[in-house]
Amino acid sequence: MARTQDYDQLLRRCYTESLPDQVIASCSLVISRGAADRAELATAFKNRGNAYDDKGEYARALEDYDQAVTINPLDADAFNSRGTTYTALARYERAILDFDEAIRLNPASPLAFSNRCFARGALDQLEQALTDCSEALHLKPKNPGALGSRAFIYLKLRRYEAAIADYNSKLRESPDDAYALFGRGVAKYMKGDLRGGDGDIVASQALKPDIAEDMAKLGIRLQSLR
């Protein structure tokens, strides 16, 4: 099927729009037209999946990622994206399988290593997680995502000074990260800095009122510290 200027504009919007609803609309038209080659079609599904993930529509995101990796099984980013959606659903074992494949396809991806670090940490596979975060930071030093994930692992390992150092670095880049503030608060509290710990925890709860519940699901329980 011949390419048209209209189709090329749709494809460009599918690839470059920043607002999820606009991405979904543009990529849906690309997909429905059937004019894309296989690589373009796979990317349209992946980008639409990313937009659905941004909106919290995880079932739709997974459907699109499934299509993307079926059409193009060499797309490491699609496997990584699907893994992050499984992580959001707390399906950590399944997420790790996708991160494994993303790393196999692209062993120089700091994002996939950082994401697998977090998923392994959620499952208390702490030493493996720490190895992954170290590799992510080797590939991309001062990576805020990897620093946040490694801080979470250090917190679970009760290495509180190391956790605080990584949370400090993370918060310099993302000062409104509720998870980092809560984690640093817990680490400070466990080191005996009750005032500093309470300050961070209160700040995190102002940003995300249910942060304590989310962290409890990850094995970090505030009530057990008091």
From TrEMBL:
Q: Name one GO cellular component term.
A: cell outer membrane
- Does the record carry Hydrolase as a key word? no
Top-rank taxon: Bacteria
The species this protein belongs to is Reyranella soli
Keywords for the protein's UniProt record, in alphabetical order: Repeat, TPR repeat
What are the ranges of the TPR repeats? Answer: 42-75, 76-109, 144-177
Q: Which SUPFAM superfamilies match?
A: TPR-like
GO BP: any one term: receptor-mediated virion attachment to host cell
Task: Please indicate if the UniProt record lists Repeat as a keyword.
Answer: yes
Write the protein's name. Uncharacterized protein
The cross-references to InterPro entries, in alphabetical order and at most eight, read: TPR-like_helical_dom_sf (IPR011990), TPR_rpt (IPR019734), Ycf3 (IPR050498)
Output the Pfam families linked to this UniProt entry: TPR_1, TPR_16
Query: Where does the signal peptide begin and end?
Result: none
